[in-house]
Specification:
Elements: E1 2-6, H1 13-24, E2 28-30, H2 31-41, H3 44-55, H4 61-71, E3 81-84, H5 90-102, E4 109-114, H6 117-125, E5 127-130, E6 136-138, E7 157-158, H7 165-179, H8 181-188, E8 192-196, H9 201-212
Parallel strand pairs: 1-3, 1-4, 2-3, 4-8
Antiparallel strand pairs: 5-6, 5-7
The chain binds adenosine monophosphate.
């Protein structure tokens, strides 16, 4: 099964991708996670990507497409994969179509997770992540037992550089301008399923599963 998770930053794509990955035994491919790892390691790709990521802009299409072409050919993608954060522009969506066609693969569904904008800003600016293990918290909705400390590994909780209010606003603007056209792109291709991203995360997952069955 090949899936795309579509939606603004902060709608819960990563959380739902993880659930789907566990349920169906296919890998979650998050372009944001791959890029953040490259930045942490200080690789050439990471250095190139960091300047865009820090301001909430998109990393150029050719860089992302090259990276994804390699990733989906990996062994663990044999039975399918979930794309989380890719494609994000029409050019990337067209490149994905070509990539799949070249490898005789078909995109099964695009799940659009829908959350109102005011809720997204609150979710992202309150998000904290563990600098050691990557666990995700929220200062109001899902606080750690001790402020600033990860419940799971004791690591320090930090705010992602791009979760500050200013950068979040830019990321949402970029989403509206560059990524929202993909809703129409996939609607036209008859692949789109829209899911309400508000409320209990397990319930949201049930709704996603219903669409996939
Ligand atoms: P995310 O964690 O998905 O919100 O991604 C964090 C940042 O990585 C984004 O704000 C972009 O700078 C970059 N990024 C992730 N995926 C893509 C993509 N498909 N195309 C361009 N830039 C991306």
């Amino acid at each position: 099964m090949i899936l795309v998770l579509l939606g603004a930053p902060g709608v819960g794509k990563g959380t739902q991708a993880e659930f789907i990955s566990r349920e169906f035994g296919i890998p979650q491919i998050s372009t944001g996670d791959i890029l953040r790892k490259e930045v942490k390691e200080g690789s050439e790709l990471g250095k190139q990507a960091k300047k865009y990521m820090d301001s909430g802009a998109l990393v150029p299409d050719d860089v992302i497409v090259g990276m994804m072409e390699k990733r989906i050919k990996a062994d663990d993608c044999r039975n399918g994969f979930i794309l989380d954060g890719f494609p994000r522009t029409t050019d990337q969506a067209e490149a994905l179509d070509k990539m799949l066609e070249k490898n005789s693969l078909t995109l099964d569904k695009v799940i659009l997770i829908d959350v109102p904008k005011n809720e997204i800003v609150e979710r992202l600016t309150g998000r904290r992540v563990c600098s050691k293990c990557g666990a995700v918290y929220h200062i109001k909705n899902n606080p750690p037992k001790t402020e600033g400390v990860c419940d799971k590994c004791g690591g320090e909780l930090i705010q992602r550089d791009d979760d500050t209010k200013e950068v979040v606003e830019n990321r949402l603007k970029v989403y509206e301008e560059s990524t929202m056209p993909l809703i129409y792109y996939y609607k036209k291709a008859n692949k789109l399923a829209k899911i309400n991203g508000l409320g209990n995360i397990e319930k949201i997952f049930e709704n996603i599963k219903a669409v996939l069955q």
